[in-house]
């Protein structure tokens, strides 16, 4: 598998940030038992990881823009065509609770299109990469989305709203419809990993509402480069703007979108 120079820069940044997160994750596990808990410590770990990534990426391409979850505001590059979209720690709640399912997510956007993607889980050493037109990979292995054709055989990932976030009633209707049609529903807690799992054929599909661009930019390319289909819940292509996403192979993407969007029953 040959990686472009740009993808190598992204991979190096993700691995460097991942090492920092891994060290801090060890400390978080110790802090679980303290009364104050690891909250502040995790915010620092998150900021530290973002700084590592920003420094690496901007050192390699100083003119590119940078949109990162932890930045106060977007850095507009002098090169109007390119922008990095970064979540230094996706799955913060898992990280905070000592659950080893979190990731670093880095995407490269060129003229409004995602052309490079890295999602890295340092706790499992799983590195997902994709370049537009070059396929998607888990470490050195080429990825392909699962080929199941009917929802009744499928395991579907989703996001679940929680205290202070999302439309709980609407989600419960979506879940009620989906769980009645599928073999299993999963909630990983890192949207970037959910999408990587679809690319890897572990999940047959995934949907979530209320995501931010950094949660899904890299994952979208992973799924597409693994042969999958991705849209927002209305079938549009601008997921980063509309903040909803549904994906799977050609058949499951369509079937899942229909079930998720089924109207609320009147009684
Ligand atoms: C969150 C995760 C989670 C999703 C949330 C995101 P964070 O990102 O991706 O899976 O359900 O909507 O905010 O806060 O852990 O970076
Ligand atoms: Ca996130
Ligand atoms: Ca985050």
If you had to describe this structure to a student in words, what would you say it looks like?
This protein has helices at 5-31, 39-60, 92-96, 168-179, 191-199, 213-225, 239-242, 250-260, and strands at residues 65-68, 82-90, 103-110, 113-121, 126-131, 135-138, 141-142, 155-158, 184-186, 205-209, 229-231, 244-248. Helix 4 links the parallel strand 8 and strand 9. The protein is an alpha+beta fold and 267 residues long. It has eight helices and twelve strands. The radius of gyration is 18 Å and the shape is globular. Helices cover 39% and strands 23% of the residues. Helix 1 packs antiparallel against helix 2 (39-60) and helix 5 (191-199) runs parallel beside helix 6 (213-225). The chain has two domains: 5-142, Fructose-1,6-Bisphosphatase, subunit A, domain 1 (Fructose-1,6-Bisphosphatase, Chain A, domain 1, 2-Layer Sandwich); 151-260, D-Maltodextrin-Binding Protein, domain 2, CATH 3.40.190.
């Amino acid at each position: 598998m040959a990686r472009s120079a740009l993808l190598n820069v992204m991979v190096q940044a993700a691995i460097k940030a991942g090492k920092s997160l891994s060290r801090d994750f060890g400390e978080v596990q110790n802090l679980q038992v303290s009364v104050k808990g690891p909250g502040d410590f995790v915010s620092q770990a998150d900021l530290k990881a973002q700084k590592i990534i920003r420094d690496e990426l901007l050192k390699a391409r100083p003119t590119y823009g940078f949109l990162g979850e932890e930045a106060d505001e977007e850095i507009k590059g002098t090169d109007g065509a390119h922008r990095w979209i970064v979540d230094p720690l996706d799955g913060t709640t898992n990280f905070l609770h000592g659950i080893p399912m979190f990731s670093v997510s880095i995407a490269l956007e060129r003229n409004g299109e995602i052309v490079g993607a890295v999602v890295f889980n340092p706790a499992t050493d799983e590195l997902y990469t994709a370049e537009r037109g070059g396929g998607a990979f888990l470490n050195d292995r080429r990825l392909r989305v699962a080929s199941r054709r009917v929802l009744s055989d499928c395991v579907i990932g989703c996001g679940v709203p929680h205290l202070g976030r999302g439309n709980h009633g609407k989600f419960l209707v979506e879940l009620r419809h989906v769980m009645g049609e599928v073999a299993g529903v999963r909630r990983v807690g890192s949207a970037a990993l959910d999408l990587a799992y679809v690319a890897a054929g572990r999940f047959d599909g995934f949907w979530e509402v209320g995501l931010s661009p950094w949660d899904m930019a890299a994952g979208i390319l992973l799924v597409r480069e693994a042969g999958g289909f991705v849209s927002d819940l209305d079938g549009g292509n601008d997921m980063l703007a509309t903040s909803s996403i549904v994906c799977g192979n050609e058949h499951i993407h369509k079937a899942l979108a229909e079930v998720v969007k089924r109207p609320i029953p009147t009684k």
